From TrEMBL:
Bias-annotated ranges (Basic and acidic residues): 69-78
Protein name from the UniProt record: Lipoprotein
Native species: Mesobacillus persicus
Comp. bias regions, Acidic residues: 52-68
Lineage summary: Bacteria, Bacillati, Bacillota, Bacilli, Bacillales
Signal peptide coordinates: 1-24
UniProt keyword terms in alphabetical order: Signal
Coiled-coil zones: none
Domain of life: Bacteria
UniProt-annotated stretches for the region Disordered: 26-78
Amino acid sequence: MKTRTKILYFSMAFLMLVGCADNANEETKAEPSVSENGSVVEVDGNEKSIEDTNDGSTEEAMTDSDDASSEKKVEEKDLLSQYSSEQIEYARVWLQLGPNQELDELNVWHIAAGEPLNPDDETSATYREDVIQLAGSRLIDGSVTYSGNGDGTINVYNVPLRWDGVYPAGEEFYTEIINNTKLVYVDPGDDKKIIELIKLQIVHN
């Protein structure tokens, strides 16, 4: 009888130990694991790490910023899209080099290669290339005479809108002007100011 009782007690104690062990295992499975970098990860794989979530937010913010910047550039480009490249060039050159920005009109003359620098002087040398002369309606507005290189730069000639002096000046005088043009990079400038100057342009053939 005592032997049976001991066996019964032993069996009950064993079953209790097994039950406690199962409970402990379930609690361990229920708790989320913590990675070495401090990110929380669910055991069943349903929860993303904190760092992954942060990375996703940062990338999304950077993408939004890039999109906004691209849209702004497109809008700025669209402001000038209705104008020709020549109109934009004339305005940019005057905005950067024009002596007087307070104009009532911006005149544009095309001077062909072979034309004299000073039509009033028979000893004048001639232009070796086609040039463009920009000027306001008054002498005080000044002028800009240049040729384009097609790469964003121009060659600026040091010639006045109206020649004053003693003539004939001699071909050497004019040749020196031709040989000493100034290479200038033309800045894009402010689009709104460019448009204002385009509206003042009067192109002469």
